[in-house]
Specification:
alpha+beta; Multidrug efflux transporter AcrB transmembrane fold; Alpha-Beta Plaits; 2 domains
Length: 301
């Protein structure tokens, strides 16, 4: 299916300076948000603690739930509405130990005293120790770093080192902006989000490789043209495929985001941001880096 006419020639390369400014602004906003909040908001998987998901029959709010649980010695506590159900809440407590294994029963009994025994339903309880959380956090970071190192080696072998550098910078750009957006919206980063980051890396890389492959083909076809022209021509050649792939992927991710429910909401949100940024970076980050590399090479020679 050809959505874009074969002779279409949008000047993507000519807009690379504007794109650079947009990327720097997005990265700066994310970094400022992270600094102001003291780093990413880690979920229970990484920060450790106890999490209890509760559903109420009657309408209530977070402040009333906290008042009802004040009598329990559970340390600091955060109560948030969960998903689309206004009567479903997530209670997160930083305190966790082997003695708190019966915490869900204790929480249910305390809430039942306030709201009624048949009007409180504890749906899920999770407990992660701080040491385990720290270990999972390090393994998650290592998984992302190892994935990028493997990509660097593969693209250097499959194409050239300059192509590998462009792809890695684009991937770091995508993950960094996604983390920044999570910080801005106050969303937690847990194990499913690490899986989303790895999926974003795979998706963005696939899009970048398609453009790179066409650039390599066009280097022989348009050998009398400037490198900037070849890059721009290659982006236009693959534009129809990019729109089809990104469009269909976005439809699926959007359906998960809207209809998937609270459990998968953050994962779908990360994928939604990642697909948009990944498509953008393949055109306005990975490809222009090759042009900057070529210009630097010409200046040296």
């Amino acid at each position: 299916m050809q959505l874009i006419k074969p002779d279409t020639n949008f000047d993507f390369v000519g807009k690379r300076t504007i794109a650079l400014v947009i990327s720097l602004v997005l990265l700066a906003v994310g970094i400022i948000s992270l600094i102001s909040k003291g780093g990413p908001d880690y979920g229970i998987d990484f920060a450790g603690g106890t999490l209890v998901q509760v559903r109420f029959t009657d309408t209530t709010n977070a402040s009333d739930i906290k008042k009802a649980l004040d009598g329990l010695e559970i340390g600091s506590m955060v109560v948030q509405q969960f998903g689309d159900d206004e009567n479903e809440f997530m209670i997160r407590m930083e305190k966790t130990s082997a003695e708190l294994k019966g915490l869900s029963i204790e929480v249910q009994e305390t809430l039942a005293t306030t709201y009624g025994a048949d009007k409180v339903d504890v749906r899920r309880t999770e407990m992660v120790g701080p040491q385990v959380g720290s270990d999972l956090r390090m393994k998650g970071i290592k998984a992302i770093v190892y994935a990028m190192l493997g990509i660097l080696v593969y693209i250097s072998w499959r194409f050239e080192f300059r192509f590998a550098v462009g792809a890695i910078v684009a991937l770091i750009h995508d993950v960094a902006i996604t983390i920044g957006v999570f910080s801005l919206f106050g969303k937690e980063i847990d194990l499913p989000i690490i899986a989303a980051f790895l999926a974003i890396i795979g998706y963005s890389l696939n899009d970048t490789i398609i453009v790179y492959d066409r650039i390599r083909e066009n280097l022989g076809r348009y050998n009398k043209e400037s490198f900037s022209f070849i890059v721009n021509r290659s982006i236009n050649d693959t534009l129809s495929r990019t729109m089809l792939t990104s469009g269909t992927t976005l439809l699926v991710v959007l359906a998960l985001f809207v209809l998937g429910g609270g459990v998968i909401h953050n994962f779908a949100f990360a994928m939604l941001i990642g697909v948009l940024i990944g498509t953008y970076s393949s055109i306005f980050v990975a490809s222009p880096i090759l042009i900057y590399w070529e210009q630097r090479k010409l200046k040296k020679s």
